[in-house]
Design a protein that fits this description.
CATH topology of one domain: Inorganic Pyrophosphatase
Strand order of the largest sheet: 8-13-15-17-16
Structural class: alpha+beta
Order of helices and strands: EEHEHHEHHEEEEEEEEEEEEEHHEHH
Helix content: 10-25%
Distance between the termini: 30 Å
Number of strands: 18
Number of helices: 9
Strand content: 15-25%
CATH class of one domain: Alpha Beta
Largest sheet: 5 strands, mixed, barrel
Length: 414
């Protein structure tokens, strides 16, 4: 697999669904998911995919900080569904008793362990599975409806906070380089100062949203949020925990021991892009499928980032690595604040200002597993780097795959 196992594309010019934000009173355009993927093999272009995004997908309309009187049933359902999805970490479409208890502990206000068990017994039915539809019916139709809704009192601070960099708090938990170490993420409501834990993968947006736009909406700014997992000049193998609630960053563990690269330090800031996913159902170049993880990024700037840092970057190009028979794109990017960023606009500019950088990246990823008894990795396009436009298309499609993640995987809709 890649060095560690493991949004938003530009708005469409027409055909978008237009909603009215309840707080800003301005139009907000939804982004429709892609139905065909064009970076794969020729026969992949004819593959049909769902034409509607998962209802758990958050857009700017869903994430508006609704006032209580504006929080109608549809908005409540969307917010509750996103909460439910955060605890369905295996993407099965249902919760079992342990996950339901964690869900109630996070969302609830007055649920005891006995109350959780009683609720589980009421909801599980014959199959013992708590789907979102069952939970929603319980929440809306329970005989003691007032108690049920008090238990899940959805207010503006609960999973409906719009993202701004200033509202994101990152917290370390446990001792670093131990199995218990986690980097967790929290959003803070600027009006109430109320905090909620969130997922860096699902809740931090892909695109950087400026408070004040300086370009027309249809002109892309090429600024994306990059989540640093492995800082440059370090070798501890940190990764987003895609199988844990809220997806904190943790160190990869093998046989109970935290993992480090034997090949040597990572020479760049390495990480992932939020709200992206490399689908295991889509055929890419050379007939390989995605690796079931967020898309990876290699940030080539001068500054060493810290584990878990969320930083705006510019996309420059992409390297198509094939790891254990799976496509593992490496998006090459640079911090928008880097001293040389203003000179580097595309992949062809990198050798002019950072000679040897691209060759070193490709060679590092080719051989890093050999010293551990593995084999060298292969590359699509004979190891050729693709330019910025190609890379942005890869990112856009990976974002749409993330939007359709549940449907593409054929999981039960929640």
């Amino acid at each position: 697999m890649d060095p560690h196992a493991h949004d938003t594309p530009e708005p469409h010019s027409d055909g978008d669904e237009v909603c009215m934000s309840p707080t800003t009173k301005k139009e907000v355009r939804g982004v429709h998911p892609v139905t065909k993927f064009g970076t794969g093999k020729g026969d992949a272009d004819g593959m049909d995919f769902p034409t509607e995004s998962s209802p758990t997908t958050a857009n700017e309309f869903d994430m508006a900080a609704y006032a209580k009187e504006e929080l109608n049933t549809t908005m409540r359902k969307r917010i509750l569904e996103r909460m439910f999805s955060a605890f369905d970490v295996t993407q099965k479409g249902f919760l079992e008793l342990p996950q339901l208890a964690e869900f109630c502990q996070y969302v609830g206000r007055s649920q005891s362990s006995e109350g959780v068990t009683k609720m589980y017994d009421e909801l599980k039915g014959m199959d013992g599975k708590i789907t979102f539809d069952k939970l929603w019916r319980w929440w809306t139709e329970h005989p003691d409806r007032e108690t049920a809704q008090t238990t899940f009192s959805l207010v503006s601070a609960d999973f409906s906070v719009p993202y701004h960099q200033q509202q994101l708090r990152i917290e370390d938990e446990g001792d670093i380089f131990t199995p218990s170490y986690r980097v967790k993420y929290y959003f803070k409501d600027v009006e109430t100062a109320y905090e909620r834990q969130v997922s860096p993968w699902h809740d931090v947006p892909l695109s950087v949203r400026d408070p004040v736009r300086t370009k027309p909406e249809n002109i892309g700014a090429n600024r994306y949020n990059f989540i640093c997992e492995i800082p440059k000049w370090t070798r501890a193998k940190f990764e987003i925990a895609t199988g844990e609630p809220f997806n904190p960053i943790k160190q990869d563990i093998k046989n109970g021991v935290p993992r480090f690269y034997k090949h040597g330090d990572m020479m760049w800031n390495y990480g992932a892009f939020p709200q992206t996913w490399e689908s295991t159902e889509v055929v890419f170049e050379d007939g390989v499928y995605g690796d079931n993880d967020p898309i990876d990024g290699v940030e080539i700037g001068m500054r060493q980032m810290r584990v878990g840092e969320v930083h705006p970057v510019r996309i420059l190009g992409v390297l198509g690595m094939i790891d254990d028979g799976q496509m593992d794109w490496k998006l090459i990017c640079i911090s928008v604040n880097d001293p040389v960023a203003r000179f580097i606009k595309d992949i062809t500019d990198i050798p002019k200002f950072l000679p040897g950088c691209l060759d070193a990246i490709r060679e590092w990823f080719r051989v890093y597993k050999i010293c551990q008894g593995g084999v060298e990795n292969k590359f699509a396009f004979n190891g050729e780097y693709k330019d910025k436009d190609f890379a942005l298309n890869v990112m856009k499609e990976s974002h749409f795959m993330w939007e359709n993640l549940r449907k593409i995987k054929g999981k039960e809709k929640v």
